[in-house]
């Protein structure tokens, strides 16, 4: 009986820890209208966090290109584009990378933090994190 209880507690802890991850699909909302704008997929590569635009809800914008972007992303389709790159885990947040705003083509330093298993805080900023803006993404249903 004791082995069963210990096994049950261990399995519960493993499931709880795995549910608390930034990786997966997240709903991104328009800042003004609060409507679902896109689904972002956060994935791990070489120990760092990256994210790409998985889907765009506005059918008229699904073929949009990033005319304001610089470098390799200039005039490339926004759908499928990596917008978050190179974040490393530091404590309870991921930081040290950049986030791209495909509407303006501007890149910002950023950090992301899981507020709860279904809520992600993204902070993009220039210089210091107090000079920026915050977005909240909600976990998408798979």
UniProtKB/TrEMBL annotation:
Listed InterPro entries: DUF2147
Annotated ranges, domain DUF2147: 24-139
Matching PANTHER family: BLL5882 PROTEIN, BLR1215 PROTEIN
Name of the molecule in the record: DUF2147 domain-containing protein
Species per Swiss-Prot/TrEMBL record: Asprobacillus argus
């Amino acid at each position: 009986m004791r082995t069963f209880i210990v096994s049950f507690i261990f399995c519960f802890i493993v499931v709880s820890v795995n549910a608390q991850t930034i990786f997966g699909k997240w709903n991104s909302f328009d800042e003004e209208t609060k409507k679902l704008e896109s689904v972002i997929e956060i994935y791990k590569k070489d120990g760092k966090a990256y994210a790409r635009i998985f889907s765009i809800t506005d059918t008229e914008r699904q073929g949009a290109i990033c005319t304001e972007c610089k470098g390799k992303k200039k005039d490339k389709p926004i759908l499928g584009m990596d917008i978050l790159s190179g974040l490393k885990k530091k404590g309870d947040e991921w930081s040290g990378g950049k986030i791209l705003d495909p509407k303006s083509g501007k890149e910002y330093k950023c950090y992301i933090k899981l507020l709860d298993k279904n809520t992600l805080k993204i902070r993009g900023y220039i210089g210091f994190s107090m000079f920026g803006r915050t977005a909240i993404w909600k976990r998408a249903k798979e």
